[in-house]
Amino acid sequence: MEKGLSFTPKDKEELREFILNHPGRKTIFNFLNLYSVYLYRKVGGFRKALEELRGNSLTLVDSSTISFIFRAKRIRGTDFTIFLMGNQKLLKKKKHFFLGSDSANDEDIKKISQRFNLDSGKVFYYNPPYIKGNKFSKKEIQKITNLINENGINYLWVGIGNPKQEILASEIYHKINVNCIFNVGAALDFITGKKKEAPKIVRKLGLEWLYRGVTDFKHSRKKVLGSFLGLMYLPRTVKMRKN
User: Please, how many CA atoms are within 13 Å of residue 201, restricted to the half-sphere of its CB?
Assistant: First the structure.
């Protein structure tokens, strides 16, 4: 098995073409950053989830630091979500399932549907209960699997945050009939305004971690520290795929 956290440096247009040209290929789309590098080194379940489905996933660079060091394209989960949601050629007559996030409720899902002109009858959601660990119970996984399969979903958007969303995606991958699984973290909450994004200039400079540390240190300190450690682990952990 290939060792190391392996990124595929594609941009939004390349991902759109990939989805268009591989309509029957079941793929997980991960958007990972320096904190993810830390998790890969320290959380066995996260590392296992990425490695077991390495051949069935695209792991994209969502970090300015990683992008700069490896001269790779950066693609933010939020930017990609907005880009793809706005592409009617891909979304027409498709069914969407939003799993997790504070925005998985009637009001916010209605906002998303109206903003991106989605057919409200083809949009579904479920917000699983909070868990302290990283793995949901077998009962909860079965419930999630049933909800997805019963509604014939085309696109699954997972907004639970890492490492939970990557671990969950790997556990349901072989149980659901969905071709595109997007692990987009807080993207949906940013889109609906449930959470505030860093200013555009901060995002462009790749200093979101600093912004979070200053504005919400209580809830962000773990990720900020993990990101610093991820930077230390970067040289001996990360690899770049050529395609």
Answer: 0
* Token pair for 115: 């903003």
Does any domain span residue 128? yes
Give every residue of the chain whose pLDDT is below 70, as ranges.
1-2, 242-243
Yes or no: say if 210 and 179 are a contact pair by the CB < 8 Å rule.
no
Contact in structure between 156 and 81 (CB atoms under 8 Å): no
Q: Could you tell me if residue 13 is inside a domain?
A: no
Q: How does strand 123-126 pair with strand 57-61? A: unpaired
Cis (ω within 30 of 0) for the bond into 163?
A: yes
The answer to the question of residue 91 being in a domain is: yes
The reply to whether 27 falls in a domain is yes
DSSP 3-state percent helix, strand, coil across the chain (nearest 5): 55, 15, 35
* Domain enclosing residue 140, as ranges: 23-187+222-240
Tell whether the torsion through CA atoms of 70, 222, 5 and 198 is positive or negative.
Answer: negative
Cα–Cα distance list, 198 to 103, 209, 214, 242 (Å) = 18, 9, 11, 31
For residue range 97-138, what is the model confidence (pLDDT) as tens digits?
Answer: 999 888 788 898 998 999 999 988 899 999 999 998 999 999
Strands (E), 33-152: 57-61, 96-99, 123-126
Domains held by the chain: number: 1
**CA separation, residue 15 to residues 9, 10, 12, 57, 197 (Å):** 10, 7, 5, 12, 23
- CB contact at 8 A, 75 and 21: no
Beta bridge partners of 32: 61
